[in-house]
Amino acid sequence: MVKLTRIYTRTGDKGDTGLGDGSRVAKHDLRVEAFGTVDETNAVIGLAQLHAEGELHDVLARVQNDLFDVGADLCTPEQEAPKYPPLRVTAAQVESLESRIDAYNAELATLRSFILPGGTPLAAHLHLARTVTRRAERLVTALMIEQSVNPEVLRYLNRLSDLLFVLARRANGNGDNDVLWVPGANR
């Protein structure tokens, strides 16, 4: 269990930060950008959760906890023989998202157009979380070119953006109140 007795350490005052394996990198390092954007995703989901109730609230709480797993995974570079076994995202976490996507999507109105981010406050926040998730996903793919990354992290983020899209539609009356894109409407 984590025990924080001090919030500031001063160790990053020169522009570097510690990773889960004890190594230090620049605060602008691609790995730090990736897990920092996962943290940003989590914060936006926290905003969405303010507007959610019941099952949707619980699903978002579970996702928030998973996102800490994603961040911990990204924060700890893969090693051949680590001193302590690192926390890694698992296929089961990805499969859980997939089953939720399938269940919620089955209840939605059929898509007939692209959807503009908006509608209810919950849907708007979920769309924002979806776009931040996509940015985290792009950063992870860039990181994967340079360094080894658990592939389940990328799979999780990819499915999470899909889940957030489906949940946004659910928050918009199961898609009945989605804000639809009208191509060329303002020409």
UniProtKB/TrEMBL annotation:
Pfam family for this entry, one: Cob_adeno_trans
Any one GO BP annotation for this protein: cobalamin biosynthetic process
Main enzyme class: transferase
Pathway it works in: Cofactor biosynthesis; adenosylcobalamin biosynthesis; adenosylcobalamin from cob(II)yrinate a,c-diamide: step 2/7
Keyword Nucleus: no
Keywords: ATP-binding, Cobalamin biosynthesis, Coiled coil, Cytoplasm, Nucleotide-binding, Transferase
GO cellular component: cytoplasm
Location of the Cobalamin adenosyltransferase-like domain: 7-170
GO molecular function annotation: ATP binding; corrinoid adenosyltransferase activity
Subcellular location: Cytoplasm
TM regions (residue ranges): none
Top-level taxon of the source organism: Bacteria
Signal peptide bounds: none
Coiled-coil segments on the chain, per record: 87-114
Catalytic activity entry: 2 cob(II)alamin + reduced [electron-transfer flavoprotein] + 2 ATP = 2 adenosylcob(III)alamin + 2 triphosphate + oxidized [electron-transfer flavoprotein] + 3 H(+); 2 cob(II)yrinate a,c diamide + reduced [electron-transfer flavoprotein] + 2 ATP = 2 adenosylcob(III)yrinate a,c-diamide + 2 triphosphate + oxidized [electron-transfer flavoprotein] + 3 H(+)
Main subcellular location of this protein, as a coarse class: cytoplasm
Entry's family note: Belongs to the Cob(I)alamin adenosyltransferase family.
NCBIfam families, per database record: PduO_Nterm
Protein's UniProt name: Corrinoid adenosyltransferase
